[in-house]
Design brief:
Helices cover about 30% and strands about 15% of the residues. It is built from 5 helices and 5 strands. It has a 5-stranded parallel sheet with strand order 3-2-1-4-5, sandwiched between helices. Helix 1 crosses helix 2 (about 60-65). The mean pLDDT is about 90.
Length: about 140
């Protein structure tokens, strides 16, 4: 039996907890989620608060990323950018929790995805909001 989001495709650019947990819930409802991780290090949430240890990934990483497909893309590299935009051609939703302005610097903001796919939904979460004096501040998910 399928879920209410069967057929919905989500490109998950988020990391740590906030975004990955949100997209896990969408996956639980039947969406097909493609999790993007950076080369070598992966999602920072893999490493928890204790630093990098490839032999013992943080348990909450698995809880926040169950049911997803994964791909490694360097979003800062032009070829990585092109791959992310190519994936967006057949994606319904892009999810991000990067600091405000980061994806725009990499030419992966809403307008960049919308130029490829005018129907795309761009979901961005921020611990400090998208405007105002604190908007560009980094925020750790637990604090948010």
């Amino acid at each position: 039996m399928g879920g209410p989001l069967d057929g919905v495709r989500i490109l998950d650019l988020s990391q740590w907890q906030q975004g990955p947990y949100a997209t896990t819930l969408l996956s639980d409802l039947g969406a097909r989620v493609i999790k993007v991780e950076r080369p070598l290090y992966g999602d920072a949430g893999r490493h928890g608060l204790g630093g990098y240890d490839a032999t013992h990934p943080a348990p909450d990483f698995f809880a926040h990323n169950r049911g997803k497909r994964g791909i490694t893309i360097d979003l800062r590299h032009p070829q990585g950018r092109e791959l992310a935009l190519r994936l967006a051609e057949t994606t319904d939703v892009v999810v991000s929790n990067f600091r405000v302005g980061i994806l725009e610097q990499w030419q992966l903001g809403y307008e960049d995805f919308r130029a490829i796919n005018p129907r795309i939904i761009y979901a961005h979460a921020s611990g400090t909001g998208t405007s105002g004096p604190e908007a560009g501040r980094p925020m750790f998910d637990i604090v948010a």
